[in-house]
Design goal:
single chain, 242 residues, alpha+beta, Phosphorylase Kinase, domain 1, Aminoglycoside 3'-phosphotransferase, Chain: A, domain 2, five-stranded antiparallel sheet, two-stranded antiparallel ribbon, 8 helices, globular
């Protein structure tokens, strides 16, 4: 088992480079910078230009050893592609390589639906599902050109997520895992052979924000890939459990 890689710690110098990049990108001046309490370095930033202040979101590189796709620019390119196709995702304004940082639209809203009544939740769910269906209908070729792996055949499509995670699992496991090994074997023995059409999928799905009783936008495409669209349906239910 390898030691876990450290999480990225963006120091004052790195944040200064990000701030300068934001000002160069927008032609404005950063007047406020709020670090979010997360495992990933991220901020809300207020930029003033010609008397108007707008809020942007800065998404840094999480580091560590949990991501199967550690290149942050991959996510920036994916979100930009989705936005260009009319999907409700944040607009990408720019990408800084050192330190890695996506400069993007800040989305209004919250993940807390507890104050909403059942009818409002149902309406939001329908809007969300329409967005997911639209995403699944997109041609996959542009994503493949951008570097997203395109599986071919029913088995590769069904197991694309499992196969992506297997090197990480094998590298970091520290003890026998008989139950997991049984499940992995069961999945490989029971591939749905009739499902041979791949779609672009969020994979870590169910991530969207709500503001004033309506869905705003989808977010977080770090683990997105090309695979079976039913994977997104399955992971929605998993997210609801916690």
């Amino acid at each position: 088992m390898t030691n876990a890689a450290p999480l990225n710690n963006y120091d004052d110098e790195a944040v200064g480079r990000i701030t300068a990049f934001v000002e160069q990108l927008t032609g404005g001046k950063v007047v406020a910078l709020e670090r979010l309490v997360r495992w990933r370095p991220s901020w809300f930033v207020d930029v003033e230009s010609e008397g108007t202040v707008r809020r942007l979101h800065l998404r840094g590189d999480r580091g560590g050893d949990v991501s199967i796709f550690p290149d942050l620019k991959r996510e920036a390119d994916v979100i930009a592609l989705l936005h260009s196709q009319g999907l409700p995702v944040p607009e990408i304004y720019g990408y800084l390589a050192d330190p890695p940082c996506i400069v993007m639209e800040a989305i209004e809203g919250t993940r807390d639906f507890s104050a909403l009544d059942a009818a409002t939740k149902s309406a939001i769910g329908r809007v969300y599902m329409q967005a997911v269906a639209a995403m699944h209908r997109l041609p996959v070729e542009p994503f493949a050109v951008a570097g997203v792996h395109r599986p071919e055949g029913a088995e590769a499509i069904a197991l694309v997520g499992l196969d992506a995670y297997m090197p990480h699992y094998r590298r970091t496991k520290s003890r026998p895992e008989p139950l997991l090994e049984f499940v992995i074997g069961w999945l490989r023995r029971n591939v749905p052979r009739h499902r041979d059409r791949a779609s672009f999928i969020q994979f870590d799905s169910g991530q969207y924000l709500v503001d004033q009783g309506a869905m705003t936008k989808l977010y977080d495409f770090e683990f997105s890939m090309i695979g079976d669209p039913l994977v997104d349906i399955a992971t929605m239910g998993m997210r609801n459990s916690y």
